[in-house]
User: What shape does this take?
Amino acid sequence: QVQLVESGGGLVQPGGSLRLSCAASGSIFSTYVMGWYRQAPGKQRELVARITSGGTNYANSVKGRFAISRDNANNTVYLQMNNLKPEDTAVYLCFVGRTSYTINYWGQGTQVTVSS
Assistant: This one.
């Protein structure tokens, strides 16, 4: 069984930066997809970024501001978020999928609030 634990959320002013981490326990293979969704109040869950052995994908709303990376040796995925905007405020959830078309594991989420 895989468990995901996120960290790094918090309150930040517009224009600021945060780095989210998601550590996975259990067997994670480098071919697995890892990534982040976000859920804002009253909005649908949105795919923010994901990383596979073939590359990365980003939501249009975060391109050029966010960067996803992973440390396969430590089963950890990161999300570096720069130039944060109030509309980035959401609960950010880490996920792992065995294939590009499945999400098999979810983290509990970490709150990111962008406000002055």
The two ends are 40 Å apart (CA to CA). The longest strand covers residues 18-25. The chain has a mean pLDDT of 95.
